[in-house]
Write a structure and sequence with these properties.
alpha+beta, 5-stranded antiparallel sheet, 5 strands, elongated
Length: 186
């Protein structure tokens, strides 16, 4: 009879695991304080990660978002087909994923216009495993831009009217001056 005893120093392994946990926590903090949406979709278009800002904009908790099909749940019907097609063509490496894209998303309280910055995520074997997107809510800035464009059109119309009126006044003054000349000469 005998005993076999094996001892292993796992200090280094524990330190690596602790460092990895700390890095993950730090990364999570970065995601949570960011003023933009961070969204990760897997190859099927399901949400695997969304940060606090994304939840705020959508109006749902993380648990209500994670695992859901992004296209069916958070895009308006009229945009789903196009955006889903772009996504799946990129997943199959048939085309590039647009680095910048603007589209409407559905929220609990309505809809918002988001400017997305996108990149592909690769697994350890170099295969596409999903997408990472950061999105900025540009709804208000687009509304302001549209209002400014409308004001410019109105100002141009007003300017054209005023200039046209001014030109008419100049012509009338010339006509009055000619008539005075005729009356004075006659």
């Amino acid at each position: 009879l005998g005993f076999i005893f094996m001892a292993m120093d796992i200090t280094a392994r524990e330190k690596i695991a602790r460092d990895l946990r700390r890095e993950k926590e730090l990364m999570q903090e970065y995601l949570e304080v960011a003023g933009v949406i961070f969204l990760v979709l897997d190859r099927e278009g399901k949400v695997t990660l969304i940060n606090k800002k994304g939840c705020e904009i959508l109006g749902f908790s993380q648990s209500e978002i994670i695992g859901k099909d992004w296209f069916d749940n958070f895009l308006p019907p009229e945009e789903r087909t196009l955006i889903r097609d772009i996504f799946f063509r990129a997943m199959r490496a048939e085309s590039k994923l647009p680095e910048y894209y603007e589209n409407t998303i559905l929220t609990k309280s309505g809809s918002q216009l988001i400017a997305w910055h996108n990149s592909l995520i690769y697994d350890v074997y170099g295969n596409i495993s999903g997408t990472l997107s950061s999105g900025d809510d540009i709804t208000q800035s687009k509304q302001i831009e549209l209002a400014l464009k409308q004001k410019v059109v109105e100002l141009e119309r007003f300017h054209k009217f005023v200039v046209g009126r001014e030109l008419k006044m100049i012509e009338l003054k010339k006509e009055i001056a000619r008539l005075r000349e005729k009356l004075g000469a006659g």
